[in-house]
Write a structure and sequence with these properties.
The structure is a homodimer of 203-residue chains. With 203 residues, chain A is α/β, with parallel strands linked by helices. The first copy, chain A, is built from 8 helices and 6 strands. In chain A, helix 1 packs across helix 2. In chain A, 28% of the residues are buried.
Chain lengths: 203, 203
Amino acid sequence: MMNDYPSILLSDAVSSFASLPGVGKKSALRMALGMLKRSDDEVRAFTDSILRLKNETHYCRVCHTISDTELCPICASTGRDRTLVCVVENVRDVLTIENTGQYNGLYHVLGGIISPMEGVGPKDLEIDSLVSRVEQGGVAEVILALPTTMEGDTTNFYIYRRLAPSGVRVSQLARGVAVGNELEYTDEVTLGRSIINRTEYKA
Amino acid sequence: MMNDYPSILLSDAVSSFASLPGVGKKSALRMALGMLKRSDDEVRAFTDSILRLKNETHYCRVCHTISDTELCPICASTGRDRTLVCVVENVRDVLTIENTGQYNGLYHVLGGIISPMEGVGPKDLEIDSLVSRVEQGGVAEVILALPTTMEGDTTNFYIYRRLAPSGVRVSQLARGVAVGNELEYTDEVTLGRSIINRTEYKA
């Protein structure tokens, strides 16, 4: 629907917005027409922020998260526990964990997880750099915080084996019934495992 | 949530995307990180299409729809019925009506509707230009296709009175039960009016 735009430039802009994740043709049209209502300066600020994101950001040379500087603010911070390294799939996971306010260590962003189906192998990920980071010393524990999927589990196991020679402690996120969930709505695999892996009740 | 981005440039780009209609902070972050995965050329094409939309499009000098040229393709077309002018609130409505495939006349985009609550009066809209267009002759019928709201009705009435001296025929979209709707789910005002304004059954 809506193929016959009276303007090719409008059509092009709509296609651009529709290329964003989760944006359909109707929303894209609303976004494009919304741009026409903004001032020249506002539209320029909008596009500049995207170009600067693309052209001026780096990936931190230690943890590979996105950063304005060669070393990200987390790696550069003196207030974080440098003996803990939390391994995550992507930058979004760093932000998600930071938002819990429960973690004060460092990170290591893999840039993906092992997925033979999608042709992603260990060499495509920041795993070698994780191993060297641990081998350089100073890391007491590596916390695996990857998705609880088959690919996540495969990646966990691969990393675990690569790190074994170093003797570093390797942990993973606790798995079980989500806080606030009714048992009725918890999937059977999770519930079954949470019975097997039950923990002592502490009042 | 998600206030502490490791990058100010990322934070700025997320704010830009979050300024789009219907986009929350989480979707905006996904959009921004998605830009980092595109090539330089792709990102440049994305921002260029927006800048060109803003800087190079016109509003058609006759019907005021968005156009790449001074006269839009609809007004410039020789295949359209030039005696019909359909009055709509905005460019989106032109596209919506074009998509029905049921209309072959011209348009007149008001750029809004009369709304005292929002401080929009007749002078803020393309109403004078509609009146002159009709006075110049050649228009047999003006079809009012504004929203069926109080503001739409007010605008319809205002335009009707302004056009009365010209003697042009003024019509409005048929109102009634939507095609495919159960009566049970049709609102009472619409249903009540559709009884009063019932039409002859044609087999």
